[in-house]
Amino acid sequence: MKVIDLSMPIADGMPVYPGDPEVKVKVAHTYESHSWELRQLSMGSHTGTHVDAPSHMHPGAATLDELPLERFFGASRVVRIKDSAWPEGRGLFFFESAGLECFDRFAALRPPFVGGELSEELERALLGIGIVTYTGLQGLERLPVGADFMFYGFPLRIVSGDGSPVRAVAVVETEPHRSSGSSV
């Protein structure tokens, strides 16, 4: 088994979507002052690698705390826009930018989640039909193409949450190691 971290590190002053709150990570307590260390975090709910709830772009739609945990993990696959068929019943991820031209295929398949470089129009349309989206992922090129993997991207349990940073992780099954020696 191979575990692949797909998350951006959260750091003071990191880039954010234009107009979103600045990211501030400050030391609030030190070992010297309190006998422990503590950081104060200030950031928007769509900072770095994050998940979007339908309520992010649709008033009255489901919020993070209303969605079951099963919506944030599961069997997944990397697909390409030009692929003739995308698998059913899996989360779908893209290396390339995906736009509104993909929406009808998603609407027909109804994957539990979609991730990658999604246009704002596609993201809005997916959230409108209840498909959660993951953006700000890094390292998708390390995932196998044409093979399933398990994806985990749990949000913080934010009451009425429209989105949340996540630690996005893919777990890829690897071939069992076989000995090259022979026994006689």
UniProtKB/TrEMBL annotation:
Keywords: Hydrolase. It comes from the Bacteria. Signal peptide: none annotated. Transmembrane segments: none annotated. It holds the Pfam family Cyclase. GO terms for molecular function: arylformamidase activity. Its EC number is 3.5.1.9. One of its GO terms (biological process) is L-tryptophan catabolic process to kynurenine. InterPro entries: KFase/CYL. The keyword Hydrolase applies. This is Kynurenine formamidase. It comes from Paenibacillus solanacearum.
